[in-house]
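Justification of resources, computational component.

The compute hours requested in this renewal are based largely on the per-chain cost of generating structure records like the one below. Each record pairs the submitted sequence with a full structure-token output. That output is archived, and it is also reused by downstream analysis tasks.
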Amino acid sequence: MNRRLLTLVAAICILAARSIPLQGAAIPQITAPVLGYVFDDEAAGIRPISGVPGAASLDTPLDLGIALQGAFINSSGRVAVAIAKDGSTAVIRWGGQTPVVTPIETALGRVTMAALSGSFAALSDGVTVEVWSTLTDLPSRTASYSNLGGAVMAVAINSDGAAVMANDAGQIQTLQNGTAAVIAAGGLWTSVAFTGKDVLATDGQALQLIRISDALNNPGSSVVATFDSSPRALAASRDGTSAVVAFTDDLALVDGTGTVTSLACGCQAKGLQVIEGNLVVYLNGTGLLLDADTPGARFVTLPNSAPSVGDIAQ
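The structure output for this chain reads:
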């Protein structure tokens, strides 16, 4: 055996020895990446989606110590506004090792809709809209808007705490600095979403997706796309270049040029929630994920890992 070969064998032996953990030493654990967090009705809790879009599954619910009847989640911010089984409202944060549950007192009858962005949230009971701030620390109500001209049908909020809402009188209003202002009228608005300085809205009567440019300062409306049926829900991409629209049974992907790509699923999504990525969307109530970041877009069925009974409060 020549010297070069002996040197190589010795090097391999040294590397192998270094890779063997000492007795009693901790062995590093490999964990799957988390795509996001969603509310699961059956588990009555918030569940991680573990894996990657092509191979993901619903994981064990977060151990919160309480059972929930609903939650509105900012997945990337690891924060949610949750409704407990007893009807109380709480802000839940899980950025650290242990989730933190902070009860909040709202003047709302019952929170039926909410939108979260950054450390802000807009909550509504269909009559009044409350804006809350510092969700990631000590939640505080910063504004309340009532007498909004009709029943609140949809809300959205941006990362600076400015909100918009749509009512059943056909109006879209901005809510900022304690003042409500009408920026669009005459539609049957079913959903709204911020995308940068603009607001996207779906009109269930005109069967259209509308863009309200510079919504907070100098609003101007234009039609982005027209559909064959009434849109029900909307999710905007993080970069503002595309959106997913839900109908009664199926979805559509709308790109920046207004091109509409139909996505048949027969899924009857209750709502749309953007999780990780630019436009990876969870279809509420279906167990399906739409990966619109992949060319052509694709649906992914999420295997349902059985939740641990010990992690679900009754």
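The longest helix spans residues 3-19. The CA atoms of residues 122 and 131 lie 5 Å apart.
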